[in-house]
Amino acid sequence: MSEPSAEAADRSGRPPTLTERTIEAVREGIRNGTLVPGELYSVYRLADELGVSRSPVRDALLRLAETGMVAFERNRGFRVVLPGARELTEIIAVRLALEVPAAQRAAVRATAADRAALQNEYEAMQVSVTAGDETAFMMHDQRFHGLLLELAGNAHVTRIIENLRDATRLVGTSTIRTSRSLEDVYQEHLPILDAIQQGSPSTAGAAMRRHLESTGRLLLQEAARKSDTNLKSNALWNDLVGHPPVGE
Amino acid sequence: MSEPSAEAADRSGRPPTLTERTIEAVREGIRNGTLVPGELYSVYRLADELGVSRSPVRDALLRLAETGMVAFERNRGFRVVLPGARELTEIIAVRLALEVPAAQRAAVRATAADRAALQNEYEAMQVSVTAGDETAFMMHDQRFHGLLLELAGNAHVTRIIENLRDATRLVGTSTIRTSRSLEDVYQEHLPILDAIQQGSPSTAGAAMRRHLESTGRLLLQEAARKSDTNLKSNALWNDLVGHPPVGE
DNA sequence: TCGCCATGAGTAACATGTTACTCCAAGTAT
DNA sequence: ATACTTGGAGTAACATGTTACTCATGGCGA
């Protein structure tokens, strides 16, 4: 009764290719700990674990390598890359530069249906928080940001941010619980939602900025905890994220 | 006497792979008109034109497809994609969001050597203008922006912009001459350079903004000229690039 | 015990084989 | 002439074969 390919067709009309399914499989493997960052793997092994040939697996990994999620080592294998403090900071800087204006535009462009959809995701986040289901929470968080970006109307921005989120996901996952701040992250979304419901771009932008900065600091803390890359993080942050000097 | 692979080793120590060389070959083919946008090509033909097997060619094209330069059509072939007004506008919006802050940071961080390097590229642009060598001009223009981005210290930003430039290159090339504005584009770089020499971030940011907006409008004009996508460009521009509303 | 070198297992990169699909164009019925 | 079928050429996606490389391991001499 159950279909062989789970969430198959998207809505693009075509069934997904093996390459695409492999990409999802690798992402899932990273999420649930099957693929450990730093460990050395090979296309051969992964291919017959997934029951497909090496070609689509290789294609999938090459695409993921493009975004920095994995790295190939010639004649050795490939590794899942755990982003360091430097990379995380860079990513936060990009997200600030793109998502803050996106939130502003979204506040102006949102239709009633859009607002309702955002509200839905926000409430789903609420449910996930009380249920303590971090996986579900991350999913709704992603959808919230995704919806907001689509609203802003720039498909390039959406794609870029989606890729960056991929690279950071494995830092945030199963670690936020540690600092019991799932609730905090959830609450930071409320001012964003409110500002968009009220159509106030500057407020929405400011709220998004606060949210991203706070999330960024959390991720950096987490990254510092697991690797010994002890904390010159503050210098990095000021250097790459710190607000551009306004005066001279 | 002449090496088989021209500008081989980069400086990464390793010789470039066939895939990488193919990527460069495709880019070059697009630049010099061997590969016509819109036309249907196949991996088979391209592979034996380049004298390699289908694998590296396919890998190369998949990577280029990731950035939107080419598009595959299942069982049909692939096309070089000419970006439309929509895509161009989106790209300009991203560049504004990322390169303006980058210019600000660069103004603060630049060392004497950095300033000299920028000056060099600027003067090389000058030479290209008087020589009427558009290809060389584009190259130095790219290097100028590339140096500036590296200065800003965010490798992700550098990579993103580099990819976007790729997608737009085939619109700008051999068309700027039409509006005889090579000189204008050159002159717009002076205020940027000056501001960085003087270490003034806000001035550098403003100059960069003016430059990108002006370049963007030129590209849009050009795109509108060759495709019949007649000009609702202005609405697009205001929608995606227009400064975010400052007040409420 | 310690350093050196041969050897072989395992791999990414590259090459070639196979399959199921799309489309065009030439035929055939109407 | 026009619509409708049909065959075949050409293709991306997927599978498998080959090569040249990296590195761990174990023997061998000091």
TrEMBL record, chains A, B:
Q: Which InterPro entries match?
A: GntR_C, TF_FadR/GntR_C, Tscrpt_reg_HTH_GntR, WH-like_DNA-bd_sf, WH_DNA-bd_sf
Q: Which residues form the HTH gntR-type domain?
A: 16-83
List the keywords (alphabetical): DNA-binding, Transcription, Transcription regulation
> What is the name listed in the Swiss-Prot or TrEMBL entry for this protein?
GntR family transcriptional regulator
Tell me yes or no: is DNA damage among this UniProt entry's keywords: no
Taken from the record, one Pfam family name reads FCD
> Where are the membrane-spanning stretches?
none
* Organism whose genome encodes this protein: Arthrobacter cheniae
| The keyword NADP is annotated on this UniProt entry | no
One of the record's GO molecular function terms = DNA binding
Regions annotated as coiled coil: none
